[in-house]
Amino acid sequence: MLSQRALNITPSVTIGINSKVAKLREQNIEIINLSVGEPDFPTPEKAKLAAIEAIVHNKTRYDMVSGLKQLKNSIVEKLEKENKVSYTSDQIVVSSGAKHAITNALMAVINPGEEVLIPIPYWVSYPETVKLVGGIPVFVDADKSNSFKVTVSDIEKHISDKTRVIIISNPSNPTGAIYSKKELEEIVNYCIEKNIIILADEIYEKINYEGEFTSIASLSDKAKEMTITINGFSKSASMTGWRVGYTASSSAIAKAIISIQGHLVSHPSTISQWAAFAALDKCESDMDNMVEVFKQRRDLAASLFDKISEISYVYPQGAFYIYADISSLRDKLPHNESLSMAFCESLLEKERVAVVPGIAFGTDDFIRMCYACSNEEITEGINRIGNFIKSL
What separation, in Å, do the N-terminal and C-terminal C-alpha atoms of the chain show? Predict the structure, then answer.
């Protein structure tokens, strides 16, 4: 009945956790949910008002497949100003979220059987999306001592004549690590030499606590030619449900993405696009304020984890996650196939705290905690994690 493509897809662990949390809450059980990767801020008022105005003024008809002209022009200006890379509006394609942008991009450049390099740990949807478009995910191990940022020596171990693309998440989900300009230059130069396309997922680029952010496409003309930049509004503007993302790429790749998107979804919701346009044009201070709050929460979460001697973590420079190493608990926590699943299930059952098992990201000795929530939830949640570990 089902296609082989459908049968090959692994269900999302994060969606499964959220389903469990929802069921427990339906039973009036209080849960501290530190699993969901979503800002807890409302969408900025000016963005919401722009959407309402679009509805009132009947801006609800079909538009360009590649996105609203006004929004694309604003994205071009943003990339020039903030990311130091110049594109034309025809090189921008607006999509129904960054996840859709990634899918579009992979469909445009991957042939069946070609390989996509995915550094571990990875965002849960990377390997499944690669499989959906007929590619083969090839996982690249990186060193925890380097915050799991891959190096050329890590990458070259996995190169074959089928290697087509490498995905770089920067800032990283799940670790919050950020690549320096020097680190990126070394990777980019190697990829140029080997003719490997770089899928640069920069959805968290504004949530950066450590200084200037380097976009891969900004490093050189050749880097720009070889890079497909993925970005959007879910994280930076707290617009997860609006579903607006985009790609910036060469004209040839953009044209292919437009053709693909035109047949699949026509274009993203015009109402959502007008909201995204207002977010870029009028809501910079709202976004900056969110980042400042996230930084304060990062500092709070890190200080609380520092008190739990049994675990260590990757210190996050961006995004809003802490990736904690629970490998020291392997002999203390009964488990069958997965340590991180056993930890998370037992934590949810005994302490009513939800976090994501690291096996979802390819590293079973870790858990991911999201601190995009109130200080009270962060404090209580991590304290409960500490109590749970002491009880083992």
Answer: 45
- The answer to whether residue 54 is domain-embedded is no
pLDDT at 121 over 90: yes
CA distance 108 to 133: 9
Model confidence, pTM: 0.95
Domain that holds residue 372: 4-42+285-391
Q: Is residue 18 predicted with pLDDT exceeding 90?
A: no
34: left (phi over 0), alpha (psi -120 to 50) or beta: alpha
- Give kind and range of the element (H or E) at residue 192: helix 181-194
Is residue 77 assigned to a domain? yes
Composition of the chain by helix, strand, coil, percent to 5: 50, 15, 40
Q: Which residues contact 204 (CB under 8 A, 6 or more apart)?
A: 170, 171, 172, 173, 235, 236, 318, 319
Give the span between the Cα atoms of 60 and 73, in whole angstroms. 20
Average pLDDT over residues 150-159: 97
Q: Give the contacts of 134 (CB within 8 A, at least 6 positions apart).
A: 110, 111, 112, 113
What is the spatial distance between Cα 96 and Cα 273, in angstroms, rounded to a whole number?
9
C-alpha distances (whole Å) from 194 to each of 1, 115, 164, 166, 197 are 41, 13, 9, 11, 9
Q: What is the CATH number of the domain that holds 203?
A: 3.40.640.10
Sign of CA pseudo-dihedral 144, 147, 153, 155: positive
Burial of 380 (0-12, 13-18, 19+ CB in 10 A): middle
Q: Based on the structure, what is the number of domains in the chain?
A: 2
